[in-house]
Request: fold
Amino acid sequence: MPTFEYQAKDSSGRPASGRLEAPDRRGALNQVREQGMWVTHLEEIRAQSPPPASPVLPAASLKELMVAFRQFATMMKAGMSINQCLRTLAAQTANRKLREAFARMSQEVQQGMTLSRAMEQHPALFSLLQTRLVEAGETGGMLDRMLVRIADYLEHDYNLILLVRRSTFYPRFVAVSALFVVFVPTLVLQGVFPFLSSVLRIALMVALPLGAVWLFFRMGSLSPSLRQGLDSFKLALPLWGKVARQLAVARFARAFGALFAGGVSPARSLILSAEVCGNTAISERLKEAAPMIQSGKGLTDALRPTRVFPEMVLNMLATGEQTGKTDEMMDKVAEYYEAEAEVSIRAMATASGPLLLIIIAIPIVLTIINFYTGYFNQMLQSVDMQ
Reply:
């Protein structure tokens, strides 16, 4: 949806300015007029093409962004100006791209640009969700709270990644160890160099296909149609599909709660949250609810036809709407799905450990059988020759 920048005056003649999203220029004018203001200038903001970013490696890690936003919020609460905060971050941040971005943003803010507009100049570093939360904080005079919200959101996302890494450490360790264990008979019977040669050969045979698959998934994220196909494939997987769905819905709920608490409209919050949920297939289904919200339906009624949420979660959202605590209820939904995902991941990790041991044991047993078969055959041949 196009974004328009407007300048207007209210009934008392005081100037006002801002940004809004509308289907066309007439819709933007009507939105401003509905606020009791008359427009003096209206201009569509043309989307700038983002600088080329590596599809494989991100410009900054999730942890680096989380720490930066947490420090930013702390400095803002301490009474430092935005410009001082940006200069401090530029001096302290280790990541070169992030450091250069903060230094550039400090200059832009000093020249009169808003923080959200300055962040938009660096799309490879700051997502649309983050810039919209900052914009909401600037408009509502609660920038420090929105920075804390962003840091909390990134922290939850980072914790989910750590959970997957921790839960899959043992299976990954067993899988890597298998490369060495399987060829222990080779080490005993033939020596070190044949052993290392066998390990290196198998490692390349395993690593090259896995690397190609990983690169295919990363490059596939650049094509919307291919990405949606890959995400649908993930959801169809027997075990991981359930976890992928839970993690995507948890990210959506966490983002929606942050945006809604910042004063962003429900329809816009839904669209932005769906875009950052991490799964295109689920994102497209969630976006189907936006037109119904814009037409006046409640959030719960709009989300029910998407069939993304179970009835229990929809009842929780309905309670949040009735009590005026939709953002808090969305946070609880996110916590529920994160807990469910944690249980599923731990269960898969627990089951995969013994399964991998069995898979590793099969070639070892075959190697031992072949060894003893050859050994006894040689003994029998020696007896026959005598």
About this structure: Residues 3-45 form one domain. Confidence is low (pLDDT under 50) at residues 47-56. The longest helix spans residues 326-385. The two ends are 91 Å apart (CA to CA).
